[in-house]
Amino acid sequence: QVQLVESGGGLVQPGGSLRLSCAASKFTLDYYAIGWFRQAPGKEREGVSCISVGSGSINYADSVKGRFTISRDSAKNTVYLQMNSLKPEDTAVYYCAAKPWRCSDDSNAMSYWGKGTLVTVSS
Questions:
Q1: Percentage of the chain with pLDDT > 70?
Q2: Local structure of residue 64 (DSSP, 8 states)
Q3: pLDDT per residue over 48-77, tens digit each?
Q4: Which CA distances in Å does 1 have to 25, 100, 112?
Q5: Nearest 5°: CA angle at 29, between 56 and 106?
Q6: What is the DSSP letter of 9?
C-alpha cells in the first residue's frame, strides 16, 4: 500500500526557511523518483523539484533554483525539501508524489500523492 505523508509546512516571514518532509512507512521511497509540486490559490499545480531513484538526477523549477534543495535520507525513509530565502510567491500547498525511477515535472505522470502541507510566506 503506497501512501505518502507531507509535513513541515507553516507560516514563515519572507526571507525565512522551512524544511518539508515526505515520508512513508509501508514502502521504501528509495525505489521511487520523488517529486515536489505546489499549488497556489487560483493557479495551476506546478512542479517544484524531483529526485530520481538513487539520487542520480535532481531537477528544480527555474523559480526555485538556488533557493530550494531536495534530498533523501534512506535511513529515515524520507525525502526533504529545504526551502530558503522564501518569497510570498512561494505560498502554496506543497505535495510530494512518487513514480517509478525517472523524474517528471508533469503532475499527470506521477503515480502516488500525499495530501499536501500548507506553506504560507507572509509578514
A1: 98
A2: T
A3: 999 999 888 999 999 999 999 999 999 999
A4: 10, 15, 10
A5: 70
A6: -
